[in-house]
């Protein structure tokens, strides 16, 4: 029997805590100080983040080979209930630290140019600092309650940054939408926290894991036995609660990582500045959901994982379909992000822990690179706007042939796009291949209706390659379409390549999208990432646990590997070829593209409107909620307000009664007293007339009375 | 000469003097009343002295009363004159400085 | 009825009636003169009671001294131009009530005391007193009181003069 207090006892002092505090304090300092620094805010924020990146790299080099250092302490106690905080510095946290800080620094650097003309720069850089602080909190803490707190902070900074240009109605609406969708997911997160806490009475992940591995299934009940404060605790819940806890926690990830059915906020979130989209809505925050699943991975049971896998596959496919007919370059990237996040979630669902995290890292690089490249294009196109020339710089219909004007951007974009499409030689290929392989193995083992997951996953490969190269053909090849669209009497300034501030981050991220960074290999298993992070063993009771991919015979992988590799490369190449035939310069589709107001054809319409999911929400759920809200408002207004008004009226009447009583009875009594006293005073005063004869009479009268009494 | 008759006369004189003292507003009239009352007392003293021929206590006391009355009258009249000078009236109802 | 009794009741009547006149008259001067009549009546009664010295003193002091003072007082405190030196009357009801009540009680007390049957009254010597004996008594047994009363009288007279003296002079002295 295990004692909970031993598991979550305070660890010995470790100087590492200073580094952890520094890591979180520096972005927070940036948040608090940039507001006061007007001109130098961008440089200051970037410098602080640069320091943070240095610390992260230093920590990574120091703790690379350790199995994980945990630091735990008492936060506070209420009665017997002890709440702890704990940090875990393991390889996963270190990799995330470096990735987040690296991209954050690049985005800061990029923003110095991108936001140069925005007067709210200090606020912008402060919010980037707040976001980085919150994100690092999620990464460093190893305690579900703290992860939840920072989870919410991340949501808040996302809200603030999406609505950064809140003067725009669409931006503030998008911010609201993102926040509300996240809240729906967080409801699940809280539910999961409550289930786990009621079972284990701790939020500490180490404690939860230790107790989960000791829990057992008895007669369909999930029983956890442990000592707490010297007393035996025996908590038994129906076995379904184990799955429920996992699924509830996964709901949080569904909101944050934009999974079906809550993914609709992410395309709208593109209203924020493009560097923000790169940092938050492509590389880090949306990946936090996947990271959180990784943290709780070992306590997910088979059923929860199935839900995760199905949701991931559906999301990946739906978003990929939605991406292929968008006009807005950022929308394409947004749907692409959702799709790739779906891949990561799918990987988690099928038990491919390492593959999912690997894809998280590679995706963070190439998607940030894509966003920053797109940001460069948008920024440079924006320079061409003036009072006579108005166009949407994010619209691919105005672009075309940019290769000639912006060669560096083109190369960076191309490298990142190849990684996204999953072609050999680029990082996306390694990680996506690993996911597809693991999915294939899982489905072979699982069998039955789960084949549709495999179909969706492979179809997504084709569509991804297609929409990626559609984007490249539309943006970079052919002729520049903008001069034909503007009024005849205006002249355009020449389109220029972005300056060093815009180029350097792109180049770095493009380099990070090359597969050689992770190892000179075609197989994900051979990368250094795989050697650092292995699939963990499930801790839930055996009858509920999913089968572990690592336990499967090695030949299985070997047999499947070549087939998966071949199919995925073939599908990706065919996607590129289809895109070439449809959107190459001079092709039929490409020619009519500029004139289109919206895509033609049923499939394209479904894609453009993202399966009409928004419309569905507005028509059915929103209407239902509005109807219900009206009923509740009626109840509020008529019943509750009526009751309160009645109480208020009763109070007023009662107060009047009391006032009357006060005025007439109590005051009357007081007045009577004073009146009596006054009259008595007047009476006695009147005796003192000052007339001596009256005194004599009075004296004699009393003398007579005395004599009468004496004599008779 | 029955004793009771004289005593009744004394009592009557005293009461008349008292009535004068109480009812008159003029200070001199009040003094007259007081003299009446003193004489009523004298009458009693002398009447009882009739039955005390040896010691003459009553008569001697009556003499002293007369003397004191004379002194009293002198001082009282002096005061009345002074009061009149001060208040420009000898009416006692106007002189009510003691009024509460 | 012996002549003595007639004289007694005559004096008694004089005394009582003049006293009543004092009570009823509003004119102070008349009251003062009625007071003379009262004193004379009383002096007569004193003579009949065998107190000749007291009677003489009564007339000397009261009629000759006090009443003159009274008349002077009346003159000094009233404007001579006034036709009548009258006083206002008030407290009539209570004054009369108290007086009558007191008289009733005194009369009742005299009646209840029943002096006629008292021992010392019965054994009283019937011989009338003499002025000579009275003089002897004053100069022997009561000499101290006599002297003290003389000093008192002197002081009273000096005091009266001092009180009634001119205030302005006094103020000048003080200054």
TrEMBL record, chain A:
Cell compartment(s), UniProt: Endomembrane system; Membrane
Protein name: NADH-quinone oxidoreductase subunit L
Biological process (GO), any one: ATP synthesis coupled electron transport
Membrane topology: Multi-pass membrane protein
Keyword terms, alphabetized: Membrane, Transmembrane, Transmembrane helix
Start and end residues of each NADH-Ubiquinone oxidoreductase (complex I) chain 5 N-terminal domain: 75-125
Membrane-spanning parts: 16-37, 44-64, 84-112, 124-142, 148-166, 178-197, 278-300, 307-329, 341-361, 405-430, 450-476, 500-522, 560-583, 638-661, 692-711
Record carries keyword Transmembrane helix: yes
One GO cellular component term noted in the UniProt record for this chain: membrane
Top-level taxon in the UniProt lineage: Bacteria
Signal peptide residues on this chain, from the entry's feature table: none
NADH:quinone oxidoreductase/Mrp antiporter transmembrane domain ranges (all copies): 143-439
Keyword Membrane set for record: yes
MF term (GO), any: NADH dehydrogenase (ubiquinone) activity
Main localization (coarse): membrane
From TrEMBL, chain B:
InterPro entries in the record: NADH_UbQ_OxRdtase_chain4L/K (IPR001133), NUOK/Mnh_C1-like (IPR039428)
Major subcellular location class: membrane
UniProt keyword NAD, yes or no: yes
Gene Ontology annotations for the cellular component aspect, listed alphabetically: NADH dehydrogenase complex; plasma membrane
Function summary: NDH-1 shuttles electrons from NADH, via FMN and iron-sulfur (Fe-S) centers, to quinones in the respiratory chain. The immediate electron acceptor for the enzyme in this species is believed to be a menaquinone. Couples the redox reaction to proton translocation (for every two electrons transferred, four hydrogen ions are translocated across the cytoplasmic membrane), and thus conserves the redox energy in a proton gradient. NDH-1 shuttles electrons from NADH, via FMN and iron-sulfur (Fe-S) centers, to quinones in the respiratory chain. The immediate electron acceptor for the enzyme in this species is believed to be ubiquinone. Couples the redox reaction to proton translocation (for every two electrons transferred, four hydrogen ions are translocated across the cytoplasmic membrane), and thus conserves the redox energy in a proton gradient.
Keywords: Cell membrane, Membrane, NAD, Quinone, Translocase, Transmembrane, Transmembrane helix, Transport
Entry's family note: Belongs to the complex I subunit 4L family.
First-tier enzyme category under EC: translocase
UniProt subunit comment: NDH-1 is composed of 14 different subunits. Subunits NuoA, H, J, K, L, M, N constitute the membrane sector of the complex.
Swiss-Prot/TrEMBL GO biological process terms: ATP synthesis coupled electron transport
Catalytic activities: a quinone + NADH + 5 H(+)(in) = a quinol + NAD(+) + 4 H(+)(out)
Transmembrane segments: 29-48, 60-84
Organism: Roseivirga seohaensis
Gene Ontology molecular function: NADH dehydrogenase (quinone) (non-electrogenic) activity; quinone binding
EC id: 7.1.1.-
Protein name: NADH-quinone oxidoreductase subunit K
Compartments, record wording: Cell membrane; Membrane
Membrane topology note: Multi-pass membrane protein
Domain of life: Bacteria
């Amino acid at each position: 029997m295990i004692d909970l207090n031993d598991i979550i006892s305070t660890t010995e002092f470790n100087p590492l805590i200073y580094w952890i505090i520094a890591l979180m304090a520096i972005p927070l300092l940036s948040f608090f100080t940039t507001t006061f620094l007007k001109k130098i805010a961008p440089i200051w924020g970037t410098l602080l983040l640069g320091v943070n990146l240095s610390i992260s790299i230093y920590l990574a080099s120091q703790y690379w080979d350790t199995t994980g250092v945990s630091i735990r302490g008492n936060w506070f106690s209420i009665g017997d209930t002890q709440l702890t905080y704990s940090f875990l510095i393991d390889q996963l946290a270190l990799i995330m630290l470096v990735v987040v800080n690296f991209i954050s620094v690049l985005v800061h650097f990029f923003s110095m140019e991108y936001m140069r003309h925005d007067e709210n720069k200090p606020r912008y850089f402060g919010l980037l600092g707040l976001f980085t602080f919150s994100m690092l909190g999620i990464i460093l803490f190893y305690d579900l309650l703290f992860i939840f707190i920072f989870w919410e902070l991340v949501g808040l900074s996302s809200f603030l940054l999406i609505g950064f240009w809140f003067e725009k109605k669409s931006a503030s609406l998008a911010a609201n939408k993102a926040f509300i969708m996240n809240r729906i997911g967080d409801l699940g997160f809280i539910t999961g926290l409550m289930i786990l806490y009621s079972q284990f009475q701790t939020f500490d992940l180490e404690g939860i894991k230790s107790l989960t591995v000791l829990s057992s299934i008895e007669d369909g009940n999930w029983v956890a036995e442990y000592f707490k404060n010297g007393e035996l605790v025996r908590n038994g819940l129906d076995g379904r609660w184990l799955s429920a806890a996992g699924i509830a926690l996964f709901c949080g990830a569904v909101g944050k990582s934009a999974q079906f059915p809550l993914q609709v906020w992410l395309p709208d979130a593109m209203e924020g500045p493009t560097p923000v989209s790169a940092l938050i809505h492509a590389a880090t925050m949306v990946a936090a959901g996947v990271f959180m699943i990784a943290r709780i991975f070992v306590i997910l049971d088979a059923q929860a994982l199935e839900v995760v896998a199905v949701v991931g596959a559906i999301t990946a496919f739906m978003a990929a379909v939605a991406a292929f007919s968008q006009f807005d370059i950022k929308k394409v990237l947004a749907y692409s992000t959702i799709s790739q996040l779906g891949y990561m979630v799918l990987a988690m669902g099928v038990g491919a822990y390492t593959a999912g995290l690997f894809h998280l890292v590679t995706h963070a690089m190439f998607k940030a690179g894509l966003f920053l490249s797109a940001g460069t294009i948008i920024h440079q196109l924006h320079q061409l706007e003036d009072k006579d020339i108005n166009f949407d710089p994010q619209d691919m219909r105005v672009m075309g042939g940019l290769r000639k004007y912006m060669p560096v951007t083109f190369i960076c974009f191309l490298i990142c796009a190849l990684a996204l499409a999953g072609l050999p030689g680029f990082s996306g290929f390694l990680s996506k291949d690993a996911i597809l392989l693991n999915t294939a193995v899982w489905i072979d083992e699982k069998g039955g209706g789960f084949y549709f997951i495999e179909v969706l996953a492979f179809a997504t490969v084709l569509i991804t390659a297609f929409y990626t190269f559609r984007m490249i053909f539309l943006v970079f090849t052919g002729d520049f379409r903008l001069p034909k669209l503007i009024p005849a009497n205006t002249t355009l300034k020449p389109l220029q390549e972005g300056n060093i501030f815009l180029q350097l981050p792109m180049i770095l991220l493009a380099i990070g999208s090359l597969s050689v960074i992770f190892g000179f290999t075609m197989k994900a298993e051979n990368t250094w990432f795989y050697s650092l992070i292995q699939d963990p063993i499930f801790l839930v009771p055996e009858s509920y646990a999913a089968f572990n991919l690592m336990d499967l015979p090695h030949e299985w992988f070997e047999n499947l590997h070549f087939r998966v590799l071949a199919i995925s490369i073939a599908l990706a190449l065919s996607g590129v070829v289809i895109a070439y035939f449809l959107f190459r310069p001079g092709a039929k589709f490409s020619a009519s593209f500029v004139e289109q107001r919206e895509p033609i054809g049923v499939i394209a319409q479904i894609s453009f409107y993202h399966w009409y999911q928004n419309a569905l929400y507005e028509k059915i759920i929103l209407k239902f909620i509005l109807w219900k809200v009206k009923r509740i408002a009626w109840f509020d207004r008529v019943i509750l307000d009526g009751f309160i008004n009645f109480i208020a009226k009763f109070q007023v009447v009662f107060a009047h009664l009391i006032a009357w009583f006060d005025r007439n009875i109590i005051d009357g009594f007081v007045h009577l007293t004073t009146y009596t006293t006054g009259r008595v005073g007047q009476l006695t005063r009147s005796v003192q007339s000052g007339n001596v004869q009256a005194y004599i009479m009075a004296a004699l009268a009393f003398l007579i009375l005395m004599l009468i009494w004496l004599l008779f | 000469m029955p004793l009771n008759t004289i005593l009744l006369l004394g009592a009557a004189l005293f009461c008349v003097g008292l009535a004068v003292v109480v009812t008159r507003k003029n200070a001199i009239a009040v003094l007259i009343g007081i003299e009446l009352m003193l004489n009523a007392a004298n009458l009693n003293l002398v009447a009882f002295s009739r039955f005390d021929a040896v010691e003459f206590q009553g008569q001697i006391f009556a003499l002293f009363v007369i003397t004191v009355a004379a002194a009293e009258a002198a001082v009282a009249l002096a005061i009345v004159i002074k009061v009149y000078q001060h208040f420009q009236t000898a009416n006692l109802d106007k002189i009510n400085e003691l009024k509460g | 009825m012996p002549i003595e009794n007639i004289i007694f009741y005559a004096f008694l009547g004089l005394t009582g009636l003049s006293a009543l006149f004092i009570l009823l008259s509003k004119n102070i001067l008349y009251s003062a003169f009625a007071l003379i009549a009262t004193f004379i009546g009383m002096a007569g009664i004193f003579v009949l009671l065998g107190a000749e010295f007291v009677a003489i003193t009564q007339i000397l002091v009261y009629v000759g001294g006090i009443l003159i003072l009274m008349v002077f007082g009346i003159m000094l405190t009233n404007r001579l131009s006034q036709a009548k030196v009258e006083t206002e009357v008030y407290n009539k009801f209570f004054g009369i009530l108290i007086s009558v009540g007191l008289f009733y009680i005194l009369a009742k007390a005299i009646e209840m005391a029943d002096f006629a049957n008292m021992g010392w009254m019965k054994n009283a010597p019937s011989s009338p007193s003499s002025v000579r004996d009275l003089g002897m008594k004053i100069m022997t047994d009561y000499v101290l009181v006599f002297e003290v009363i003389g000093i008192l009288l002197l002081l009273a007279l000096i005091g009266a003069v001092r009180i009634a003296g001119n205030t302005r002079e006094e103020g000048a002295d003080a200054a």
